[in-house]
Amino acid sequence: MSIISLIIKREFIAKVRNKSFVVMTFLSPLLFVGIAGFVAYLSSMKAETKRIAIHDESGLFVNEFVAQNDKDSEYRYLDLSAIDVQALKDSIAEEHFEALIYVPKTNSNKDLENKIELISNNSPSIIFIEKAQGIIADKLTKDNLELAHLDTLAIKNAKAEVVLNLSKASGEESIRGLNEIKIAIGGAFGYLIMMFIIIYGNMVMRSVIEEKTNRIVEIIISSVKPFQLMMGKIIGTSLAGLLQFLIWTVIGLSLMFAASVFFGVNIGPASNVSPEMMHAAQQEFSGTAQMYIKEIWNLPIASILISFIIYFIGGYFLYSSFYAAIGAAVDNQTDSQQFLLPIIMPLMLSVYIGFFTVINDPHGTIAVVFSMIPLTSPIVMLMRIPFGVPWWQIAISVSLLFGTFFGVVWFAAKIYRVGILMYGKKPSWKELYKWLKY
To answer: Which one has a higher pLDDT value, 44 or 355?
Structure first.
């Protein structure tokens, strides 16, 4: 058995036998399911109804607001126009009401546009403000049209509601929101890669720091080369991480299934939807659902899965080399913080580029460029692939990724070789540059 294989086996066994690894492997799914169940329970709880006082001296809007009581359970509007305004303000201060909408009496509707007050101790939500403004604006518009002797019903009927029928160039009917589905699929795979890199890259770094602090590494490198030790740590930790992810998936799905079957808990946004509503929705959208399923199956699923595996391996190995080099350069995790930010920033940039650029222009210059840059390609390219990417772009991106990986491994090994035996000195960027020349 080769030396690297022995190191991989040692790292894998050391990780899976660690108490914290075993505890978190089986505790994390329980925490996840517990949080999901708690969120479902909170979403099923009826929100407390907020009382809104209405003091309308003009008499124009009070009925419009009170009519909303049957449509909105979150707010209840109360006609308190007969009560003195100051008394209502005092009630607001004592928190008897959430807010007070005060409509003064004016000579014209035009004056009301800027004189209506919303009084509240706490800053009201934007949604509530926009809704109140909409009710008032609709009423004023209707009254203005009537004062102008215009037929409001005719104007309402004259408003056109346009619905575009989507279709492909081949004449086949298309669906709405397909781009969102594609970016969600690519984003899920990209996010999984990012989380794996952050969690298990840090594990590689901590392992190196621990062995360096305990001086175990001085004995180890008497038998193996630093490069072999670094690669063994990266691969061994990744295998332990994959095993943990597999166990999490199996346990999590099993617990969710058990909760839904034995306790009748529906995890997800449909948990508070009645069976009648669900049946009606199924009848209404059955045809649309079939179209969505058909479109999803038409996606390059094989390319997505194969690319995920390739970019998963390349991205993890690339970033883990950085983490291993940092672990060798420092004596404790506190000193590593100055070096971690440049590693985390490309990952965060990848997510930003993916969700805000790829979805709008998956084949644009920005998306293409960042899907080629090795530090961002594992996430950005995975978000582009569901939209259809030419094979030569994927080939160039993968070649650059693994080419950069081998280059980074070479540089990281030089830092690792020197830093693994350096103690008691906080390294700087200038110091790391000197180590590359050794």
So the answer is: 355
CB 335 within 8 A of CB 426: yes
Give the torsion sign (CA, 129, 134, 139, 141).
positive
In degrees, rounded to 5, the angle at the alpha carbon of residue 224 between the alpha carbons of residues 219 and 229 is 95
Tokens of 70: 């049957």
Nearest to 253 by CA among 35, 32, 41: 32
- Supply the pTM of this predicted model: 0.66
Q: Is the dihedral of CA 335, 221, 325, 210 positive or negative?
A: negative
Spatial CA neighbour of 67 closest among 165, 18, 135, 167: 135
The residues with which 185 forms a beta bridge, in sequence order, are: none
Q: Using alpha carbons only, how large is the chain's radius of gyration in Å? A: 31
Would you place residue 397 in the very low, low, confident or very high pLDDT band (cuts 50, 70, 90)?
very high
Tokens of 250: 């199996």
